[in-house]
Amino acid sequence: MSADSSASVSSAAAALDRYAVAGNPVAHSRSPEIHAAFAVQTGQSLVYERLLCPLDAFEATIRGFVAAGARGCNVTVPFKFEAFRLAQRLTPRARLAGAVNTLRFDAEAAGGWLGDNTDGAGLVADIERNAARPLRGQRVLLIGAGGASAGVLGSLIAARPAAIRVVNRSPDKALALIDSHRAWADQHGVALSAGPLDAAAPDGPHEVLINGTSASLSGAGVPLPETGAPVLARGGLAVDMMYGPSAAAFLDWADAQSGPGGARRDGLGMLVEQAAEAFLVWRGVRPDSASVLADVRRRLESAA
Ligand code: NDP
Fold first, then answer.
1. Which site from 40, 81, 142, 296 is most exposed, i.e. has the minimal number of CB atoms within 10 Å?
2. Which one is catalytic: 80, 104, 139, 165?
3. Are 88 and 148 found together in one domain?
4. Does the annotation count 80 as an active-site position?
5. Global pTM value
6. DSSP annotation string for the chain
7. Would residue 122 count as lying in a domain?
């Protein structure tokens, strides 16, 4: 197990319930400060760390963390599919996603580890509540078909947009993702389609554009090739699941298409909202996310 210095647990803290964000990389994650703020706000005693997992040793790292007394963890890039396979029980939204971002290490006698996925609830709350942009009837483009995109597709469908197109660098993964959501989409009257990155808007621009790739995280820039045809409609909303300055290149690029009346969100709102859902799963109490989002945003901006 490897955790950063902010995660080193003193003997006093060792007695507290332990949680972490597990991924690779995790150094950029704001999850520890978000959960620390939730704990203070709700009067819960816990410690939340960063858990850097070697790419070939996610399971071993998690088992080591559990052996050290951990109660749960968030799972981030690129381990959400592995976390799905590790869970002994799944919530319906995690089962639909085929990906897990929240593990609760319940004892065998209580049914074993529970896998949930709070990413979709977080993203939709940020778009509809925080950005006041209802998804109903909109045409949505989701770029990416990794763990994060898998986690949000079910919730996006449940918000009943008119259509969702999923495009990915590996187009077969986008196709598999929509196939696994086909029945759910039919139930909600949502048209699903999928394709490669260079076929992002075959029927014209979308009203909502979501970057669910890790391109901004890795510094690879805008994940779509420049075809000259706009993918985002005038006045549309662009979201990058990455947050802070790393999301700026994608959001600036999208702004040029949406123009005046357009809106942009980095992934900080989604992060705080999905964290609030995870906190509820672990602790049985839902924190107030708005005040924490405002605080974390202030700190992120003053650090930039
Ligand atoms: P995964 O590793 O599971 O998936 C990565 C995805 O990005 C794949 O679709 C991959 O395509 C695509 N991709 C990677 N690099 C490029 C590139 N240069 N150009 C085009 N596509 C690329 O990661 P996750 O899905 O778990 O995470 C994706 C991002 O979302 C991360 O930045 C993560 O930090 C962020 N995130 C934010 C959250 C929040 O709360 N704000 C919550 C969850 C995630 P391919 O399939 O072809 O490899």
1. 40
2. 80
3. no
4. yes
5. 0.94
6. -EE-GGGPPPHHHHTSEEEEEEESS-TT--HHHHHHHHHHHHT--EEEEEEE--TT-HHHHHHHHHHTTEEEEEE-TT-HHHHHHH-SEE-HHHHHHT--SEEE---GGGTS-EEE--HHHHHHIIIIIIS----TT-EEEEE--SHHHHHHHHHHHHT--SEEEEEESSHHHHHHHHHHTHHHHHHHT-EEEEEEGGGS-TTS-EEEEEE-SSHHHHT---SS---SS-SEEEEEEEEESS-GGGGHHHHHHHHHHH-TT-EEE-THHHHHHHHHHHHHHHHS----HHHHHHHHHHHHHHH-
7. no
CATH code, domain with 78: 3.40.50.10860
Answer yes or no: is pLDDT of 228 > 90: no
Residues 90, 158 within the same domain = no
Q: In ligand 1, which atom is closest to the CA atom of 80?
A: 26
Q: What's the CA-to-centroid distance between 251 and ligand 1, angstroms?
A: 16
251 and 276 inside one domain: no
- Asked if residue 78 and residue 139 are part of one domain, the reply reads no
Q: Are residues 174 and 255 in the same domain?
A: yes
- Domain range holding 189? 134-266
Cα 242 to middle of ligand 1, angstroms:
9
Quote the number of domains for the chain. Answer: 2
pLDDT digits (tens, 9 = 90+) for 95-118: 999 999 999 999 999 999 999 999
Is 165 within the bounds of a domain? yes
Closest protein CA for atom 41 of ligand 1:
267
CA of 118 to the centre of ligand 1 (A): 16
